[in-house]
Amino acid sequence: MAASAKPFTFVCGNDDFLVGRLGKERFAALAAEIEDEFARETINGFAANVGEVESAVNRFRDAVQTVSMFGGRRAVWLKDVNFLADTVTGRAESTLRLVEDLQQILEGVNPAETAVLITAAPIDRRRSFPKWCEKHADFALVGGDGEGAGEALAGVALAEARAFGASFAPGAVELMLAKVGANTRLVVEETRKLATYAGEGAAIEEAHVAELTPNVAEGDFFEAAEAFFSGDLPWTLAALHRHFFGGGDARPVISALQNRNRILLQVRALVDAGTVRIGPRGLDGFPKAQAAHGAKFIGATEKSSYNLFTQNPWYLGKLAGSARLPTLRRLIDNQQELIAAFEEIVRRPAEQEEVLREMAVRCLAG
Description:
Blueprint: E1 8-13, H1 16-32, E2 40-44, H2 50-65, E3 74-81, H3 88-91, H4 93-107, E4 114-120, H5 128-136, E5 138-142, H6 149-163, E6 167-168, H7 172-180, H8 184-198, E7 203-204, H9 206-212, H10 222-230, H11 233-245, H12 250-272, E8 277-279, E9 282-284, H13 286-293, H14 313-321, H15 328-347, H16 352-364
Parallel strand pairs: 1-4, 1-5, 2-3, 3-4, 6-7
Antiparallel strand pairs: 8-9
């Protein structure tokens, strides 16, 4: 071991999947240097209360102080630590004292005798212990500090595609994130699937994502919504038929159409006011509009179709620019038609497809 090597490894971040994956890679590298499998120990650091925190720290202390049966180096992994977060358990005075004990244990680690790995997610980096680890450990922060989550997920997708010898064509990764949402596991698995479909050395196109990636993010029935707001009546009727042929229900389709319509109503209002403009890269002027109007959306700070500024700007530009943006009057009429369709379905529950077909004809045939 080099003299400059850190005494232990600390991997942290806000996404437990990413942290756990890197931790598994790091521990595999440590374990490869230790032939005796009994000299490798994994301790669960997940704690639901202070008592479990104390148990995890005590088990870790015992593991670090244990001498290998046949001599030689040991490897100890304290994994899935969650008591370093800004939670009720993490803020408890007893937990903070136990974290001080954990720091003392780590200060006494001899890396020549014991290789130590700690993985923690989520984590409050304002605390003294993570700051201390940053200075004294082989420190790795996975996925950033929680800000710019979209950029972090895009980075995960791009890296995963590179590992499979593929790449994303312009707009493809953004469309995938809009459909999958902030679920790292799904982002990884969808990227692997798309990369395999595209083939080694090829680019994953928007068409691949549109065809192969399910829209998990908000339950939006993508084809029906895309067809309806493109103004294409035959495509809309065909999409509705496919949905109901597969045993689907009308309510989620109406909900998807209402969500899209709400977003476009807000986009149209900003466009008509001259605050934003639909450009080749989305909504030009969107940050300025957000600064001017974002604070007015009281009580709608989570991602919601009721608040335009909680949406991905690229996704908004894609929605507004994929077809001619309807007039404000048309969008208001759409909303009224959707309400009427819901009421009609209550009266005619056995004719749901017919109700939506009639609504589509009224909205799109004129």
